[in-house]
Amino acid sequence: MIHGKTIEAWKQSHPIIGDLVALNETSWFNPDIAKTSEAITDVGLTAEDVKAASARLQRFAPYLKTVFPETAIANGIIESHITPLVQLRELLVGEGALQNAGEMWLKADCDLPISGSIKARGGIHEVLKHAEDLALKAGLVARGDDYSKLASDEARAFFSQYKIAVGSTGNLGLSIGIMSAKLGFQVSVHMSSDARQWKKDKLRANGVVVVEHESDYSVAVEQGRHQAAADPSCYFVDDENSPDLFLGYAVAAERLERQFDRAGIKVDAEHPLFVYLPCGVGGGPGGVAFGLKLIFGDFVHCIFAEPTHSPCMLLGVYTGLHDKTSVQDFGIDNVTAADGLAVGRPSGFVGKAMQRLIDGYYTVTDEELYRLMVVAYDRDKVKLEPSALAGVPGMARVLQSPDYLTRIGLTPTNLQNATHLVWGTGGSMVPEDEFNAYLAKGRSL
User: Fold this and answer.
1) d(Cα 188, Cα 203) in Å, to the nearest integer?
2) What pairs with residue 302 in β-bridges?
3) Rounded to an integer, what distance in angstroms lies between the CA atom of residue 203 and that of residue 171?
4) Which pLDDT belongs to residue 191?
5) How far apart, in whole angstroms, are the C-alpha atoms of residue 372 and residue 386?
């Protein structure tokens, strides 16, 4: 019995569960999507909260510029560029015989400085907020100060009295660990069995304590939570439920709007925007989608992408069980090459808060991720790790779903004018030998 029902009963009441359990690539477009103005209140956060997070990152820019020279070119702002994906678009259009395909772009969070993934934005924001709260209370800084003074030995000695803990499959651990250690915190990253060795090595090289667990992501998070609960000096970064992480991710949307303006990309009723976001526990894509909805409203359509072996958010939203269920409950193993997305149980906060704002969900096989990685690297000269390719099939899934497109009122003309944005969540920091092994596997497929 699974939550009071047999698997056959679940397949009867929720038909796509059969495909999910069989590990078939699956798409589901949410029939309960609502007007942004109505559904945005479900989140419990506001545009002012996002502005506060953006302002905090701006206050810390002088500090980041000082301690991370790679951020100097952007004056201490952690941001990525956008670039067209011409060859990947041609591949999708040709293979799917797609009609009315608009333009396809990449949001290259794979190239973010410091930790090389989408987590650099949200994870670093949460660490900086905690540091700011402590520093303001202790009088180390005052509002209006140049925060580069926090790069001093005095500040590092102050922060060294405190601890930070997090559970991670890899990329969030990199951002939390590197940022916390740079400030001077004692930081522990609890990592699941599927985390890549190079990520553990990089953390240790930066002075981070890495605690390895034989189980999956959920256990790593729970162990980090236990560590913090037993130690008053320890702050736990809760990837499943943190509003500060969520708001840090949401800041990306205001910056994307400016990038679109500079690139001449319109987003309005005649020029819809589709954004494809790889999803693990849900905090990163949920935060980005929230920010996008605040800015572009009903003109943006956010789609979450997951591995066939780890469809936790799709399963949680589709069944209405959210974080009360896991993929393992339904016999799905949560074992995937997309290590950043290897999550069995979704964030209850994100699933419930965003369920009327996310247009749809789809799954993709590991084999397809590897194949697309080769195309992205060879033809579009983009270096993405397997999980970061999950957003690429999104354009095809949308254009091959006429019922969904009719329901949201889009015409062939609208679709010809659409922008399809793939969120490239990580990859630039993958070591060359590991990346070459990925490429070899992809070419073999």
Assistant:
1) 10
2) 275, 358
3) 10
4) 87
5) 9
**Residues comprising the chain, all counted:** 445
Q: Find the helix packing angle between 243-263 and 47-59, rounded to 10°.
A: 80
- Secondary structure of residue 259 in the 3-state scheme: helix
Question: How far apart, in whole angstroms, are the C-alpha atoms of residue 180 and residue 143?
Answer: 21
Give residue-wise pLDDT tens across range 203-236. 999 999 999 888 877 787 888 888 888 899 999 9
Kindly list the strands in the beta sheet with 163-168, ordered across the sheet, starting from the edge strand earlier in the chain.
Answer: 209-212, 186-191, 163-168, 234-237
Place of tokens 């008053």: 232
Q: Residue 54: what residue type?
A: S
Judge contact between 300 and 256, C-beta under 8 A. Answer: no
H-run or E-run covering 425: none
pLDDT tens digits, residue range 319-373? 999 999 999 999 999 999 998 899 999 999 999 999 999 999 999 999 999 999 9
Determine the Cα–Cα distance for residues 340 and 170; give it in Å rounded to an integer: 6
Within 8 A by CB and 6+ apart from 330, the residues are 2, 7, 10, 17, 20, 21, 315
Residue 351: helix, strand or coil by DSSP? helix
- Are the C-beta atoms of 18 and 332 separated by less than 8 Å? no
Interacting residues of 48 by C-beta distance below 8 A, sequence separation 6+: none
Single out the residue of 392, 400, 393 nearest to residue 422, CA to CA: 392
Q: What strands lie across the sheet with 82-84, from one edge to the other?
A: 27-29, 358-364, 300-307, 273-278, 419-423, 103-107, 82-84
- Decide if pLDDT at 71 tops 80: yes
Amino acid at 114: I
Report yes or no: 241 and 126 within 8 Å, Cβ to Cβ.
no
Residues 301, 358: Cα–Cα separation, whole Å: 7
For the record, the structure tokens of 195 come out as 């985390």
DSSP 100: S
